[in-house]
Amino acid sequence: MTAARMKKIPVALTIAGSDSGGGAGVQADLKTFAAFGVHGASAVTCVTAQNPGRVLDVEPCSPRLLRLQIEAVSHELKPAAVKTGMLFSSENIKTIADCLEHKDIPLVVDPVMVSTSGACLLQRDAVKILLERLLPLAALVTPNLSEAEILGRQRISSPEDMAQCARRLHSQFGCAVLIKGGHLRGSRRATDIFFDGRATLMLSAPWIKGVRTHGTGCVYSAAICAGLAQGKELAAAVQTAKQFITRAILKSYPVGNHSALGIGR
Prior knowledge:
UDP-N-acetylmuramoyl-L-alanine:D-glutamate ligase; nine-stranded mixed β-sheet; about 40% helix; globular
């Protein structure tokens, strides 16, 4: 087969932090893109020293270097979809917004705020900039329950609360919303709520007991991004991603004293 006849595959860009443990962040995103048959490109916002148990330290990249990474990828590789993960600082968010605001590329925003171990992954003054500059550019925002409570300024204790919050966020920012309810107290199922301004979808899967992983939010949003890069409609990409992350949790495997998501297994 000649190079001219080789099938071109779409490119997806992740703008996120590096996880030295390999379970979340850029590393998890790139593995997810590969599992979908999408070429993964990356712009690293910050470097973390972490393992599945805890985050030891975080150092952000300079805004200049972050901008150059995004420009380098955009110039030659032409991403078909973009996702953001851990952004850490207001300077990073402003830089990303400046780079993306005039591009007609679907953007998935995973508003990473706190790690599973409790470490702060988004500085307090950066939340306002996230709301003002990045969410209005997004096709979809994918908060977990605690992030949705912060963004929507309400308590969430039921699927009905999740749906109400999704409608509120959509009304405020204009993007579709996927609220992940995997940690909803008292629930026997991992239920997520998707709202795009027209339809509300309840995405539910059995709660998988005995598995403790991190990086599920990263993989979920990366799977959605990959679907969008392949040309899927947003609702279809979300539904496919829900099936993907459910399988990844089910196929988790031991690494040291922890479990890693079975991406593509």
